[in-house]
Write a structure and sequence with these properties.
By secondary structure, this protein is of the alpha/beta class. The chain has helices spanning about 40-45, 80-85, 90-95, 100-105, 110-125, 145-160, 180-200, 215-230, 245-250, 265-275, 280-290, 295-300, 320-335, 335-345, 345-350, 380, and strands at about 25-30, 30-35, 60, 65, 130-135, 165-170, 205-210, 230-235, 255-260, 275-280, 305-310, 370, 390-395, 395-400, 405. The chain folds into two domains: about 10-60 and about 360-405, Urease, subunit C, domain 1 (Roll); about 65-350, Alpha-Beta Barrel (TIM Barrel), CATH 3.20.20. The chain is built from 16 helices and 15 strands. The longest helix has 17 residues, at about 110-125. The two termini are about 25 Å apart. The structure holds 2H-imidazol-4-ylacetic acid and zinc ion.
């Protein structure tokens, strides 16, 4: 798949991503120096260049996962039985479990422990073809732990090989200490924004705007404070109840609104008009047993640029597998294979401010790409549940092969 004019692909344009049947790419010093039809690329190269024949297999940009909570400690497996018995996600949270259970375990973890736990998950993602990942904080709900989570992301970004984007999600749930004084917690999160920006700990701020968590009014205050110090903003919007998070994302000019299963169509249109990306998380929706986000309406009627993400987290989406998310998007939301590919490459990169670096095979960009064990794009979602990434490259270097990180 090749790039065109810059920006995400919106609405029906998501189907225009270019597929070259007999293509080739050339890499020099970690960058793409030629991309196109094989005869053209070959003609442009010196005769003595090292050539690799991948046997007609599919090559795509490295996948981008634009919504994860990958830095956390512990597990919520002890809540599985409750979930299987039909206890709703928000009821578990309201009773002091859910996110708050992970907060307790994360507060008790050192920086080194958080780095080790997240590194394992990032390596799984890498083995599945993901070369660029967004990672949220939000399991501290106090400055010391939120900072520790973001420092873990910084350290992991420095170690590489993946490109990481950090998001501050101090407003992920009401901190237990502030249960009786919710507005004081909103003040506290607002007060953290300047430190996040000054220390360069995150590129974005995010809010879980949901019934019993943060209202639209609280979310607006928090995100405006983020914008005032120069952070980009994102919203967990209209996932379970239609509160109006999507409309708020449009009002603020957010980079993305994420989830959107219950969003009103009028609000989705406002998002499209404001250039806000829709990040859909169908593995979460499946895990919670909810109605899928209306991806077809978003693309065909609203003209939205749709991206897809794992939402990797210990409660509502305990998986690192973006390929499975792609398969849910096709089979549960009726996205076409080429739309799905655009949603985990070009559009996903634009959702996290990496559109100029990741998500497209274009001359001059870092050579982040995947060689797949399949002959064409449709096979990425036709066959499901296994890892079909054969070789994963970042900066032209082989970093994972057949499920093993090198
Ligand atoms: O830990 O439950 N939805 N936040 C909002 C999450 C899911 C992550 C979690
Ligand atoms: Zn999330």
């Amino acid at each position: 798949m090749q790039g065109g004019p810059s920006g995400p692909l919106c609405g029906k344009a998501m189907r225009t991503a270019q597929v070259i049947c007999d293509g080739a790419i050339a890499v020099k010093d970690g960058r793409l120096v030629a991309v196109g039809e094989r005869p053209d690329v070959e003609a442009a190269l010196p005769a003595d260049v090292n050539r690799v024949d991948v046997g007609g297999r599919l090559v795509t940009p490295g996948l981008v996962d634009p919504h994860t909570h990958v830095v956390y400690a512990g597990s919520r497996a002890s809540e599985l039985e409750q979930k299987l018995n039909g206890v709703p996600y928000l009821d578990v949270l309201a009773a002091g479990g859910g996110i708050l259970s992970t907060v307790e375990q994360t507060r008790a973890s050192s920086l080194e422990e958080l780095i080790a736990a997240a590194k394992g998950r990032l390596e799984t993602m890498l083995a599945y073809g993901v070369t660029c990942v967004e990672a949220k904080s939000g399991y501290g709900l106090d400055w010391a732990t939120e900072e520790r989570q973001m420092l873990a992301v910084r350290e992991l970004a420095q170690r590489g090989p993946q490109r990481l984007v950090s998001t501050f999600l101090g407003a992920h749930a009401m901190a237990p200490e502030f249960r009786e004084h919710p507005s004081a917690f909103v003040d506290a999160v607002v007060g953290m924004m300047a430190r996040v920006a000054e220390q360069g700990l995150a590129a974005y701020a995010d809010v879980f705007c949901e019934t019993g968590v943060f209202s639209v009014e609280d979310s607006r205050r928090i995100l405006q404070a983020a914008q005032a110090v120069g952070l980009g903003v994102k919203i967990h919007a209209d996932e379970i109840n239609p509160l109006g998070g999507a409309a708020l994302a449009a009002e603020l000019g957010a980079a993305s609104a994420d989830h959107l299963c219950a969003a009103a169509t009028g609000d989705l249109i406002k998002m499209a008009e404001a250039g806000v990306l829709a990040v859909l998380l169908p593995a979460t929706t499946w895990y919670l047993g909810k109605e899928m986000a209306p991806a077809r309406r978003m693309i065909d009627e609203c003209g939205l640029a749709v991206a897809l993400a794992t939402d990797c987290n210990p409660g509502s989406s305990p998986t690192e597998n973006l390929q499975l998310v792609m398969q849910f998007a096709a089979h549960q939301m009726r996205m076409t294979p080429i739309e799905v590919l655009a949603a985990v490459t070009r559009n996903a990169a634009y959702a996290i401010g990496c559109g100029a670096v990741s998500g497209q095979l274009e001359v001059g960009r870092p050579a982040d790409f995947v060689i797949w064990d399949v002959p064409d794009v449709s096979h990425l979602v036709y066959h499901f549940g296994t890892n079909q990434a054969a070789e994963v490259y970042i900066d032209g270097r082989l970093v994972a092969k057949r499920g093993c990180v090198l």
